[in-house]
Every structure is written in structure tokens, then in C-alpha cells.
UniProtKB/TrEMBL annotation:
Its EC number is 2.6.1.-. It is an enzyme of class 2 (transferase). Residues 27-392 form the Aminotransferase class I/classII large domain. This is Aminotransferase. PANTHER family: ASPARTATE AMINOTRANSFERASE (PTHR11879), ASPARTATE AMINOTRANSFERASE, MITOCHONDRIAL (PTHR11879:SF22). One of its GO terms (biological process) is amino acid metabolic process. Pfam families: Aminotran_1_2 (PF00155). One of its GO terms (molecular function) is pyridoxal phosphate binding. The lineage of its organism: Bacteria, Pseudomonadati, Planctomycetota, Planctomycetia, Pirellulales.
């Protein structure tokens, strides 16, 4: 029966991680997969998470199923974190949230919901985008279109190209935007540019889908929500996919959420019923642990303060490393200008290295970078930055 089944290619990014694990070179450097690392190269469990887990372990009285849409307290805390407790979207009750297994789960539930409820709509993805986006929406049976995002000449946002392409979107098409810390480029729109994007969405009657996987990794918790809050104008509908993999370090607990903002409470309730239908046939109901941790931390003043400190520390380290890398690379006499890396936000940067240079770094130096040249900045440390710069000098000269 399985004779005709061909071997599928390994996932481009996770496959690289496997190759890194098997590499015996003690000086190997992994800048591929998107996981935060501290100065020692460790992906830590946050203190606030450990404390919440202690409390949960003591208080747990059942392992019975969660509702299809997950924990109500978690869903409400997620909405407030994104919008702020007093935002009109919250006070008008026109938003509903379902807990999901990671941001990926939220994106897939969104994809299935769009395919069911908006037949014929295309999903517009930035070029480039996180490589799993096309996989997810294609699997959901949706048609894809792309809009330009990266301007190679300036290493910045191709804003005119982006707006120009989106002018061609049809009413009811879905526009996927990265809420902050764009993956893979690290380039985000300015507040003024977000305003123009929100205007265009409103004028052309598009459905914005925000992928919000890095809140707090760019400039701060509310600063990183500027785009999302700009788009959430009175009456505007939108979908938001949250992930707490990065900002809580809960990667393997699979904790995320999908929020749908409708025009009114009655419509939001109808959307919720459709999201539950999608979830029921996918995984029935979500796992509890990760969401219980996030809910506990977000709703307890002291744990929340600890979390915000820990998040600030992660953000400051990433920004410090960006500066260190730019200083070191310019000091080692490379012609190429890498100063743009300091302006980019979040864990990722587009280094400008091409596929050949990336391959050479891997085969000759055991430095692992994704083929597009995307670097996980958090993989750089005081201990490996000199070797990394040496490698980049070698392959670029
Ligand atoms: N969206 C983007 C842009 C991401 O980078 C990621 C994680 N790499 C996700 C969604 C999915 O996150 P999760 O691990 O929570 O599924």
C-alpha cells in the first residue's frame, strides 16, 4: 500500500537544526531555527513560568477536557494583552478568542475558517514571509498571492511596492501582516506606514490577518501592538493569531490563540461557533498546561511584573547583540555595510548573504544559517561573535 509514497523533503529550517545537532565541530554556531537563546546559548525556562507551574501543580484537581475554545480566562487575558483592557474592541464585546496549539495552530484554524466562510478569497503574503505560511494556507485549500516587502537596495521596507500590489486585492481578500518583528526580515512598518496600511484595508474592504508571534520582542509590549491597534478602528473586522512560544519561552507547550474581531457582538458569536466547528474536526480541544501558565502569569500582579522584567531582559539582549555584531563586523574590515542590522526588530535579520555564501559558511565553518540569509540574532553571543565575523569575512571577500 505504501509503495508509491515518496519521501517528502525535510522542512527547510527544522532540517538544518537536525544537521546542526549531528555536526561534531565543537565550535559550531546555530543561527537557523527561531528560538531565543541567552548568553550561554541556552533557551531558558522563565522564572515566572516555573512559579506559575508550581502553583498549578498544587492546585490542579482534574485532567478533564477543556471546552473546544479553551480556557475562558486565558482567552480574555490574551485579548487584553493585545489591545489593552480599555480598548473599544474589548469593551464592546465584539472580539472572540479561541485557545490554540501554538501560533501555527491558530494560523491553521484561521485558514480553515477562511476557506469555509470566504470561498474564493485569496490570502496575500509578504514576499518574503515565514516559510510555513504558504504551507498552512495551501493545506487549508486557499489561493495565495504575494505583495513585495523587502527592498534589497535599502535593506528596508518596499512600502510603495507593498501598497501598490495590495491595491490589486479584491474586496474580501485576506492580507496577512506580521504584527511586529517581521520574520524573516526584521523590518516593520513605521506608525505612519501602519496608518496608510489600515487606510488601504478599510478602503478596499480587505480582511486583515495579523500574525502576532513576537509581542514584546521588538520595542515593548504596547509598542509592538501599534499596528494591530491602528488597524482595529471602530467597525473594522480582523483576525489575529497569537503565539506565546517566544515571549514566554513556552515553545514545546504549544500555546497560542486566534482572535476574531467582528463588527458587533452578535457577529462575533456567530464567528466563534464556526471557529469551534473547525477546531472540533481538527484536534477537538486544546491542551491545558501552556495556556494555564500564561493565564496565571498575566492575571497575577507579581508574576506579571516578573514576566515583564524577563521579557525586557530578552529584548535588551537581542538589541545589545545587534549592536555588538554590527560593531565587530565593521571593525574587521569588510567592505559590505551591515549597519542596517541594528535597525531591524526582533529575533531575525536578513543578512544579505546569498545561498552560496550560506552553504560555504556551513560546510567550511559549521555556521548554520537559513538559505535565504536569515539570521537568528539570538544565536549570537560574546563567545561566538568573532568566529561568526571571521566566517562572514571569508565568504564575502
Ligand atoms: N508566525 C511566525 C511569524 C513565526 O515566526 C512563528 C514561529 N517560528 C509562528 C508563527 C508559530 O509559532 P508557534 O511555535 O507558536 O507555532
Amino acid at each position: 500500500m505504501f509503495q508509491h509514497v515518496e519521501t517528502a523533503p525535510p522542512d527547510a529550517i527544522l532540517g538544518l537544526n537536525e544537521a546542526f545537532r549531528n555536526d561534531p565541530n565543537p565550535e559550531k554556531i546555530n543561527l537557523s531555527v527561531g528560538v531565543y537563546k541567552d548568553e550561554q546559548g541556552v533557551t531558558p525556562v522563565l522564572k515566572c513560568v516555573k512559579e506559575a507551574e508550581k502553583r498549578l501543580l498544587e492546585g490542579e484537581s482534574t485532567k478533564s477536557y477543556l471546552p473546544i475554545d479553551g480556557r475562558a480566562g486565558y482567552n480574555s487575558a490574551v485579548r487584553k494583552l493585545m489591545f489593552g483592557a480599555d480598548h473599544e474592541v474589548i469593551t464592546s464585546n465584539r472580539a472572540v478568542t479561541v485557545q490554540s496549539p501554538g501560533g501555527t495552530g491558530a494560523l491553521r484554524v484561521a485558514g480553515d475558517f477562511i476557506a469555509d466562510s470566504f470561498p474564493g478569497a485569496s490570502v496575500w503574503l509578504s514576499q518574503p514571509t515565514w516559510p510555513n505560511h504558504p504551507n498552512i494556507f495551501t493545506a487549508a485549500g486557499l489561493g495565495l498571492k504575494t505583495y513585495p516587502y523587502f527592498n534589497k537596495a535599502t535593506n528596508g521596507l518596499d512600502f510603495e511596492g507593498m501598497l501598490g500590489a495590495l491595491q490589486g486585492a479584491a474586496k474580501g481578500d485576506v492580507v496577512l501582516l506580521h504584527g511586529c518583528c517581521h520574520n524573516p526580515t526584521g523590518i516593520d512598518p513605521t506608525p505612519q506606514q501602519w496608518k496608510a496600511i489600515a487606510d488601504l484595508i478599510q478602503e478596499k474592504e480587505l480582511l486583515p490577518l495579523l500574525d502576532f508571534a513576537y509581542q514584546g520582542f521588538g520595542d515593548g509590549l504596547s509598542e509592538d501592538a501599534i499596528g494591530l491597534r491602528e488597524i482595529a478602528r471602530p467597525g473594522q473586522e480582523m483576525l489575529i493569531c497569537s503565539s506565546f512560544s517566544k515571549n514566554f519561552g513556552l515553545y514545546n507547550e504549544r500555546v497560542g490563540a486566534l482572535t476574531a474581531v467582528a463588527t458587533c457582538e452578535a457577529e462575533a458569536t456567530a464567528v466563534l461557533s464556526q471557529l469551534k466547528k473547525v477546531i472540533r474536526s481538527n484536534y477537538s480541544n486544546p491542551p491545558t498546561h501552556g495556556a494555564a501558565v500564561v493565564e496565571t502569569v498575566l492575571t497575577d500582579d507579581s508574576l506579571r511584573a516578573t514576566w515583564e522584567d524577563e521579557l525586557t531582559h530578552m529584548r535588551d539582549r537581542i538589541n545589545g547583540i545587534r549592536k555588538l555584531f554590527v560593531d565587530k563586523i565593521s571593525a574587521c574590515g569588510i567592505d559590505q555595510d551591515f549597519s542596517f542590522i541594528q535597525q531591524q526588530k526582533g529575533m531575525f535579520s536578513f543578512s544579505g548573504l546569498n545561498q552560496m555564501q550560506v552553504d560555504q559558511l556551513r560546510s567550511e565553518m559549521s555556521i548554520y544559517i537559513v538559505g535565504s540569509g536569515r539570521i537568528n540574532v539570538a544565536g549570537i553571543s560574546e563567545a561566538n561573535v568573532d568566529r561568526l565575523c571571521e566566517g562572514i569575512k571569508k565568504v564575502t571577500s
